[in-house]
Amino acid sequence: MYIMKRLFTMVITLWIIASVTFVIMHFIPGDPFATDGKMLPEKTVENMRAKYNLDEPLAVQYVLYIKDLVMFDLGPSIQSKTRGVNELVADGFGPSAILGIQSLVIALTLGIMLGVIAALYHNRLLDYISMLIAIIGISIPNFILAPLLIKFLGVDWGLFPVAAWGTWQHTILPSIALATGPLAIITRFVRSSMLEVLDENYIQTAQAKGVSTMGVVIKHGIRNALIPVISFIGPLFASIITGTFVIEKIFAIPGIGKYFVDSIFNRDYPVIMGTTIFFSLILVVTLFLIDLTYRLVDPRIKLTSGGK
Amino acid sequence: MNFKKTFLVISTVFILILAACGGEATNVSSEEAVTQEITANLGGEPYTVDPAFASDTTSYWVIDHLYEGLYRYDEEGEVVEGAASDIDVSEDGTIYTFTIRDDAEWSNGDTLTADDFEYAWKRILDPETAAYDPSQFYYIAGAEEYNNGEGDVEDVQIIAEDDHTLVVELEHPVQFFPTVVLNHGYLPVNKNVVEEDEDWAADEESIITNGSYIVSVWKHDDHLTLEKNENYWNIDAITMDTIDFKMIEDTTTEYQMYQSGALDLVTSLPSEAIAQEKDSDEFINHPSFSVYTYTFNVEEEPFTNAKIRKALSYAIDREAITENISQGGEIPAYGYVANGITTPADQDFREEAEPYYTFDVDKAQELLEEGLAEEGWDELPTFALKYNSEDNHKKIAESLQEMFKQNLELEVTLENQEWNTFIDTFKQKNFQIARMGWVGDFLDPYPVLDLYTTNSSSNFTNWSNEEFDALLEESLTEQDEEKRFELLHAAEEVLMEDMPVIPILFSATNGLMSEKVDGILFDPLNQPNLRYAERIAE
User: Fold this and answer.
1) Domain count, chain A
2) pTM attached to this predicted model
3) What is the number of H-type helices and E-type strands within chain A?
4) Residue B31 has pLDDT above 60, yes or no
5) Domain that residue A141 falls in
6) Closest CA of chain B from A11, distance in Å
7) Do A147 and B223 touch (CB under 8 A)?
8) Is residue B2 pLDDT above 70, yes or no?
């Protein structure tokens, strides 16, 4: 019952997002056919608009779009004459997801480790080192970090390929660049929530009962400290596996991240819609899975379909 | 005798062994050892390889290497007959008869016929196709009417009389029609293939070409590989076997890839790198056939007065802009038509004309005063300079603001908009003065000047001048090349005298080319021609 209801709300949410995006998108000034400097004759532009149904009233366009959407057809791309939006998403999602998952694994493992160490050595050297790493991670934006990684590890020392896609080696630098931001945030999250948890009565009880420090940290500490982290990971996961504009541009990754931004600049309406809907879909599904995970981590949280 | 022979054999064997052991030496002596492959950067995914829909230089670069039109560029970069073996022009200059080569074939083995050309051109003109630029065919009788939905396809004078004869009749004689035929839209497509599968241009297997190369790999957003087309009639002239196009959008990354040796050619450089690489032997700089301008709206005060418009032009120190701001080998523009067109006197069109203005502060102030007096104003109202948000445009706009302030004591505000919004504003003529750049479609002064005729769909200046219109119209039908160029010079003079648009500079392409490759051809209009290139070292 709970799951059915959730699925229903998910569909409604997606429909609302699609509709709002559709309306807002058509309010941006500009036209998909004026993306280069050349001014085409009015008639030529009219023919092109007709081809993509852009000459119809907005309401008709909306109905046509939703009709296709129900059939999981995201339509043609106006910019790319060779690939529809479905293909564009299908082609690009793979590389974006691989980078996203790799960097999330890096961010989570190192982030949790650093956070726990910082909390355990509160106000001591290891804490300061962890926090220094976290601050560097937050304050150096990845569009600065990425070219630096390329320059030193790629060009000067030749350890990794400079850019492009192909082998696993190609994924290393972008994964690192992508991981630093989330890593820093996770470290700080884990540290503060761990500090809070370590102060709790049940930790002292466990210690009093003679449980080893390791046991206390792993069994009681980390498990409880992770709950706030999980709620942060949901949206992070959704956004990181759907690619990032900056990293994909810099490393020339054939992902979908850049389409989120390029489509808006190009006024490529079907691609704006397609990428937005795809991201929303991943996000609502992730949030749903996160809710299920809460239950596993913390049995106190019950999944109910209302205020029962 | 016998001894001599034995000695010869032994010594030959010895030399061969030496050569084989030489390693490095063999590579130099026999060029066949070097794999003829070149890696260049497209700068992004080509949106299509169908000539009917291509609209961007990325797609054009690929398309140029895949198809061959009636004319082509030879090893020297000269325009010669391509898919046509013979071209006959009627005495009055209106009927072109193209004879298609007997040995011209498509990459799938089909014979290239006149019908393919007729089909390809009429397909672009068909309003249903919604092709990118049908107006490039409007010189042909019946074309514009059909494209606008006012005429029939039967009346379009593009007729394949038989498999090898294509007859085209023009609306009126157009001297420069052969350069128009070099346009991408005039390339042929394989009728059978296109009719069978409307998505034929989407992936490597279904793309059928008639030029030097075929597409062997197309990994979207990643790379595209071209291999020699074994069915191409002139295959022996093609020295480069494989072209590997990467799709790196970021110029800094592209530059770093080049430094690491992963690219042989880059055709854009981050502005920081230009200064650094300028003196390198690998640095390449070529003028491109395009002009960077500031355009007036002549119905918007204070630019209703020609003297005031000219005053601004005289107040601009263009050399300072090209040398200190853009810094990429751009040429200061003292006329409208960019360098690159050769006139009948074998001179460059631009060099042939005297500069229409200079950087002259006194003259600028004088013109401004006269203009103000003519309009009865005490001082020039403040006005806004509009440009689209981009670093270089911003720097140039700021320097103009400073020059107008220093030289004419004018208060100018700057307004910038994101490109697409800007284009919208521009088309609605919602500006006093705005930045705009134009790239020529073909190497002739006519199409770039024609932008400013009264009926041009690209004239957003509100400027209309009967003399200018008449001169251009006359030039279109003038059969004598020398007279035609005189008319074009005269038209440009009218334009610059009235100055609805201020030319600032003529753009240039900057890049780097590895010393391991040779023979890449550059011209002002197209992306580098790689087919005749040769790799001289691994």
Assistant:
1) 1
2) 0.86
3) 13, 0
4) no
5) 90-254
6) 31
7) no
8) no
